Amino acid sequence: MFSRWSIQLKYSLIFILTLALIIAGLFIGIYTLKTNQLRNEAMASAEQVLAFRAWVANTGVVWVDHLAPNFPDYLGKRISSNSSMEFFSKNPALATRELSEIVSKTATRATFRVTSDEYRNPANAPDPFESTSIQAFKADSNLKYKDTFENDFYRYSQPIFVKQSCLKCHGDPKDAPADVIAKYGDKRAFGYKVGDVRGIISVKLPDVTLADVLLTFLNPYTIGLIALAFLLNFLFTQGAIIKRLKALALTTERIAKGELDLLLRDNPGSRDEVDTVRHAIDLLRNSVVVAMKRLQKNLS
Ligand code: HEC
Asked: By the 8 A CB rule, do 76 and 179 touch?
């Protein structure tokens, strides 16, 4: 079937195939880049949250002098000695949860939460991806992060390790602030040691879809460059090969029909494969001329 096709058609197909292979390679590259990009974005977000938590944990809890309407949760409550003011404490996990809610309402793409296999607050219960991450971090202390794609989201998690400042509320229940015992009892999330995996910070980002990637290719520059590549290839195959081969075939036919003096010349100075064929035809023609002259001499 291919043997009947013109060079132009065969070459165009090879060109399109080449282009498709290059684009496939590009897509694989873009997908790797995309994952790296999402991972970096998630990691940056996680590090900021961890820094914020460390700040709260280092001060123990933060005390606020009133509760914002959207954030009524608190750990403990104190009333000033003259009873004129009330103060409420927010522990690190609580402050982080409120930060997470504030951030999720901004234009930031990343949303995050803190969760643990041994959670005190039901609102912090892990989902399947988070549970498997926690188990993986507990099993391998060198594991820095876990990530996956789930539906249209990129999911990332990073372990939270117990530090000295955490032990006050996650070490021995006897040392724990009364507020913690009063709110969550003395059973859950105690008995940790420095260096233990206490939980994870879990970050979620909208995935970059195939449609997004395709759309980035649909811009005038990319389309223009691809069109230019097609044009250059067309001009080359037509101008440098096909037209010259056709002309050569025509002249050779005329020589065969008897116009033995016809000149076989195209681009002066050109020395490519078409010229080699032309040269071979020239030699053949000369042999024919010589042979004919000999024949004529013999006849006369
Ligand atoms: C002032 C006491 C206090 C300190 C200090 C403290 N925590 Fe907590 N932590 C809590 C309480 C209370 C909760 C209960 C959940 C909530 O408030 O959301 C909690 C919850 C958590 C959770 C979420 C899972 C859950 O139990 O619901 C993680 C993870 C966590 N803490 C890790 C840490 C780490 C790591 C540190 C040290 C950097 C730390 N905590 C310091 C009191 C504390």
From this structure: yes
The whole-number pLDDT of residue 194 equals: 95
For 14, 73, 123, the CA distances from 178, given in Å and listed in that order, are 77, 17, 22
Total residues found in the chain within this entry = 300
Angle at 228 between CA 224 and CA 229, to 5 degrees: 120
- Give ligand 1 pocket residues (Cβ under 6 A): 53, 57, 60-61, 75, 91-94, 97, 114-116, 119-121, 124, 160, 162-163, 165-166, 168-170, 177, 180, 184, 189, 198-199
AA letter at 291: A
Q: Which residue owns the Cα nearest ligand 1 atom 26?
A: 119
Q: Are 133 and 158 in contact (CB under 8 A)?
A: no
Average pLDDT over residues 93-104: 92
- What is the number of the ligand 1 atom nearest to the C-alpha of 73? 17
Per-residue pLDDT, averaged over 51-70, amounts to 92
Categorize the per-residue pLDDT at 252 as very low, low, confident or very high, splitting at 50, 70 and 90.
very high
Q: How crowded is residue 113: how many other Cβ atoms within 10 Å of its Cβ?
A: 22
Angstrom distances, CA of residue 154 to CA of 97, 113, 243: 20, 14, 54
Ligand 1 pocket test: pick from 49, 52, 91, 194 the residue with the most ligand atoms within 8 Å of its Cβ: 91
Q: Which residue has the tokens 């961890």?
A: 50
Q: Is the dihedral angle over the CA atoms 290, 294, 296, 300 positive or is it negative?
A: positive
> Is the CB of residue 174 less than 8 Å from the CB of residue 4?
no
Rounded Cα distance, 188 and 81, in Å:
32
Report CA-CA distances (Å) from 5 to 9, 11, 121, 240.
6, 10, 72, 19
d(CA 172, CA 191): 6
Asked if 109 contacts 41 with a C-beta cutoff of 8 angstroms, the reply is yes
